[in-house]
């Protein structure tokens, strides 16, 4: 038997989609994803950025209602920052504010006191871990490959598909829950390739069978963007993404060794945890994607805004203006509006930024400066 779960992150601020045109993501992505899991009666953990939750509440409250009504049936909720920043490019105070605002919206809109965090890009540092710990987060999702490195560093021989505790120092720990990007005898990013019609479902199902043979009684956690049905069609032109997901879930559910779980199921059943040192990880996407090429002017302005806010705080300027500037800075953090060139060995240049998505970032940076300069 293996435990099989899903983790879907919701970031409605997709780079290819113009600001104000997000309804298509809701109609052709989010609703359809919920439909599939409700129909198949499978379990998934959902991680919504605070900005996404707020925009969904404005544009389609029925979507928020659907999610809340199905919590404890098909879905459990986790947290995903405020505006989907690049964590590895934030200062400690910026990351702390991103998390605090996201958790606040979870409580206010989703009625959820979330304890689990899916880091954008799987980024993790011990500094981030301590901020998460301080804000009441108890577990994070990490790449199984990073957990394997942590086990190797600690000198422990254990299957990397079992949650571990990561040592943050001074007696503090977070539980690290493993997610995977590659099944046995499948290419890396197999899930994404499958949703683009470039890898057949049966090959992925065969990979799951082999995973079961190699890693019995462990967790197989699939992670994807919640926009997947919409965005994979948009990027690739493949028109049967919904059908592929439906076929995949049908065949997955038919496997007699699969036990559908939420992450919380695994954590509530696990009595002992191996403690490791989880190495710092700068994320799946290279930082140059957000700091070089077309992204360079935005990155330069970001640093200028940081300096301006710090100076205003030191000089004791009006706190209300400073708070407004902070809000603009956090809104500008959205990674999808900051892409310069998509540096990726796997699929270089895949993502391009819609003009209004870029302007959204630039205008919020400028608004922060105008408040304080």
What descriptors fit this protein?
single chain; 373 residues; alpha/beta; 7-stranded beta/alpha barrel; 5-stranded parallel beta sheet; globular
SSE arrangement:
Elements: E1 2-10, H1 23-40, E2 44-48, H2 50-59, H3 61-69, E3 75-79, H4 92-109, E4 116-117, H5 126-134, E5 139-143, H6 144-154, E6 164-169, E7 172-179, H7 190-195, H8 201-214, E8 219-225, H9 228-236, H10 241-253, E9 258-260, H11 263-269, E10 275-276, H12 288-291, H13 296-314, H14 319-332, H15 355-372
Parallel strand pairs: 1-2, 1-8, 1-9, 2-3, 4-5, 5-7, 6-10
Antiparallel strand pairs: 6-7
Helix pairs in contact: 1-9, 1-10, 2-3, 2-4, 4-5, 8-10, 13-14, 13-15, 14-15
**Residue fraction in strands:** 5-15%
Count the helices. How many?
A: 15
Count of strand segments: 10
Helix proportion: 40-55%
User: Structurally, how many domains make up the residues?
Assistant: 2
């Amino acid at each position: 038997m293996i435990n099989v779960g899903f983790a879907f992150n919701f970031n409605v601020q997709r780079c290819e989609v113009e600001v104000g045109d997000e309804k298509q993501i809701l109609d052709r992505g989010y609703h359809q994803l919920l439909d599939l899991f409700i129909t198949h009666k499978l379990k998934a953990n959902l991680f919504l950025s605070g900005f996404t939750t707020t925009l969904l509440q404005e544009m389609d409250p029925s979507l928020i209602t659907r999610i809340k009504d199905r919590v404890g049936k098909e879905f459990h909720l986790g947290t995903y920052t405020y505006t989907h920043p690049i964590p590895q490019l934030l200062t400690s105070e910026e990351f702390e504010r991103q998390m605090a605002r996201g958790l606040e919206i979870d409580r206010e809109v989703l009625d959820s006191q979330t304890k689990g965090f899916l880091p954008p890009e799987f980024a993790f540092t011990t500094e981030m871990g301590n901020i998460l710990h301080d804000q009441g987060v108890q577990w994070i999702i990490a790449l199984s490959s990073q957990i394997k490195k942590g086990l190797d560093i600690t000198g422990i021989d254990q299957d990397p598909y079992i949650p571990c505790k990561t040592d943050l120092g001074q007696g503090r720990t977070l539980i690290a829950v493993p997610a995977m990007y590659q099944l046995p005898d499948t290419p890396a990013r197999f899930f994404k390739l499958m949703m683009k019609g470039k890898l057949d479902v049966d090959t992925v199902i065969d990979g799951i069978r082999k995973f079961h043979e190699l890693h019995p009684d462990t967790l197989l956690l699939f992670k994807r963007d919640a926009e997947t049905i919409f965005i994979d069609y948009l990027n690739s032109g493949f028109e049967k993404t919904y059908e592929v997901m439906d076929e995949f879930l049908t065949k997955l559910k038919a496997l007699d060794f699969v036990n559908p779980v939420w992450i919380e199921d695994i954590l509530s059943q696990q009595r002992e945890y191996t403690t490791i040192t989880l190495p710092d990880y700068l994320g799946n996407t290279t930082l140059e994607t957000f700091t070089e090429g077309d992204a360079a002017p935005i990155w330069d302005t970001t640093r200028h805004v940081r300096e301006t806010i710090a100076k205003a705080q030191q000089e004791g300027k009006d706190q209300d203006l400073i708070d407004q500037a902070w809000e603009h800075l956090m809104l500008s953090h959205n990674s999808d509006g900051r892409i310069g060139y998509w540096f990726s060995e796997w699929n270089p240049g895949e993502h391009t930024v819609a003009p209004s998505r870029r302007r959204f970032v630039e205008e919020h940076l400028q608004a922060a400066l105008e408040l304080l300069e």
